[in-house]
Structures are given as C-alpha cells and as structure tokens.
Specification:
The chain is of the alpha/beta class and 266 residues long. It is 60% helix and 10% strand. It has seven helices and seven strands; from the N terminus they run H-E-E-E-E-E-H-H-E-H-H-E-H-H. The chain has helices at 5-23, 67-74, 78-102, 121-130, 134-139, 148-226, 254-265; strands at 31-33, 37-39, 42-44, 48-51, 57-61, 114-117, 143-146.
Amino acid sequence: AMSSGQTRGQWGEMQLEQLLEHSGLVEGVHFRRQDSRVTETGGARPDVVVDMPGGGEILIDAKFPFDAYWRAIQAQDQEAIDVNLRKHAEDVLARAKELSGKRYWESTTSPEFVVMFLPLESLLSSALEVNGLLLQEVFARNVVLATPTTILGMLRTIQFGYQRKLMADNAEEIRAAGAEMLNRLEKAVEHLSVLRRGITGAVKGYNDFVGSFDSRVMVQARRMKELGVVSATELDIPADITEALRDSRTELPSGEESSKDSDTDR
C-alpha cells in the first residue's frame, strides 16, 4: 500500500491528524486542513495550517519521499542498502526544494518557513546518516524537517500558548468586570448617601412637628378639656423618634482604631 504516492500522502496526513488531536488543538478553531492560498508562484495548498495564538500561521506539508527508503529496508546486501539510502537523502532534499519553490509563506502572516512532516523518525535519521548537512541545506531553503516527536513538541507549545492567552483574556475580563462592579457600587453608595440625608431630614422634620404640635396644639386641647369639653377619644401625641441612624463611618478593628487614635494624638 505504501508504494502508492497517494496512499503515502493519506497516511502522512492521518499521522499528522493524530498528532494534532494529541496536542489538544481543535480543527476549525486552532488549525485548518487543505487551506488554499495564492502566491507569486501560483496556487498553493498546504495540508495543515496551524493558527498561532496572537496571530500568525504555521504551514505543514505531509507529503514525504518513501520509495528509496522502502527499497533500502528490503535490500539484502549492504551495497544496495547504501545506494538506496543515498537516494532517499537526495529525495528528501529534492522534496524540500520543491516545497521551498512553492513559497507558501508569501500569502500569509507565517514565519518564512514551511514544515515538511516525515511521519517516521527513521525517515529523517537514515537520511542524516548519509548527509550530515541535510538539515542546514533544507533550513537554507526555509524548510523545517519535522518528525512525530519534534512536531508534537511544537504543537503542544502552540496549545500551551493558547492556554496562556485564554488566561490573559480571562484576567482582562475579570479586571473589566471588577471595574464595572466598583463603578456600580460607587453609584449605589451615592444613592444611599442621598437616601440617608433624606431620612435624617425626615426624622428632624417629624420631631420638630411633634414638638410644635405639643406646644401649640395639645396645650390648647388640654385647656379645652379642663374647661369641660368632652372628646370622644383620648388625644395622645406620638412620641419623638429617638433612635439614632447608624454611623456611616467604616468600623475599624480595635487595633487599627487605636493606631489611628494614636496617630491623631501625635
């Protein structure tokens, strides 16, 4: 099955999809598949585009060379193995050149590189055994070779970045909600202050009225009663309101209050 280029591509995409799932990234939220774009060299469609927290994209291509590597692991003599491994290293470099020529990054906000995914660790290690400068040669072409181990580390780092961004966003929302709550509390305290002044004025007005009523009206009523005028009911003036309103000053713990008094004394 792996002898077919199309099958290999599907298998590579499946491996990449599993790694994306293990990393915690969600399709449609953190990454997109087969996202077409247009560059100066024409149309381009990387297999996966991973959105980075805060902006930017990582482009991943899952197509990889396999024929020469497959012949090498099936070969019986060392010469055939060496020949096919050299061919495999050349194929990896050729594929990197091909990806570089597509210039995926020109139509995006991504860093100037594309990730070439190799779904087997041995695909890279066997090529490096033949060509020790392979990584430098593909880096020079803005291509990064990634195996399951390295790409999973990269994806989990991106996912960690999303977690940190979410925490930062939540902290900002909490700060905004706290500021709004304080603003509303200030307005409520203003209304309470107005209400307290109104209650205080009403109590004073009531007590003044009771005092005036007692000294000006009830005196005359008592005089009429002394003169023999009979009333159907016993007149009884309401008492003054003597309950004091609660002190609006903040109550401090005894230690703080004594400290404040000491500061005042000084």
